[in-house]
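Quick question: who can interpret this fold?

. . .
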Amino acid sequence: MSLETRSSATVWRRFRGSYFLYRLQRNRRAQVCLTLFVLIMASVLLTPWIAPSNPYDLAQINLLDSELPPFWIAGSEPAHLLGTDVQGRDLLSSILYGARVSVAIGFGAVLLQSVLGTALGLLAGYRGGLVDALLMRLADIQLSFSTLMMAIIIGAVVKAAFGGAFYGDYGVVILILIIGLSEWPQYARTVRASVLAEKQKDYVDAARVLGFPSYRIMWRHILPNTLSPIFVLSTIQVANAIMAEAALSFLGLGMPETEPSLGSLIKSGFDYLQSGSWWITLLPGLFLVTLVLVINLLGDWLRDTMNPRLHKG
């Protein structure tokens, strides 16, 4: 066996025997959830190529095809496997494009709140004193404003300043700002608690004795040791952000009905639920529940895996 082959085999054995893969192999539920999550993310990324039609293209929409049932109900058409909505859009395509928007908002909002909350929590925990008190009181004030209240305030300001057309064009960015600015205290408090424990350890005292500046101690030494709770919290927050987008869109404070997202799709078919077109609301709702459930279960598994106190061996 050549040196290169032995090196590759060694790397593969180490990868295969890593702790996370070991825990994953022993948990069937995590395997199923991870498989579903990969499939959903792949379908979201490949939406323009795998979707039967483009719901944004008016040339591909026919109002005469509105409210067609799914393929297992009489009256369906082969071109629309999951039926159509009230505007004649293919429901499968709308769900894929809507999931793309919802996932983008979820990950974008979590990225914003994690960066902002981690920076403020790191600063509050390391500096302490007046800085800690001011930042934590700011977090308490922010927690008193719900995501719904933030959406009402920011939405009203944006519409008054720039008009409703601007809100519709930049709805994704506005929702990322609304959800991200509403939930950053979760990260700030989590990081602060970890920093308070880490800064009492010997390696921080050694870094101070060596004359390292405070920003280097915080970002190069303390922050890497607080990443585990950040990763676990991020999985939970992604699911919460996706649900928040769906709730805001359902209430008319998020994406408009002309822009497919999971929340706007559920809202558009809710008025037709009693008339028999239940699939317009139920199928996007099932997709949303599945996506959020898979992310939450993966978050639970990641929390248990990264906390050795929760298991033996």
Q: What stands out?
A: The longest helix spans residues 91-127. Residues 201 and 296 are 33 Å apart (CA to CA).
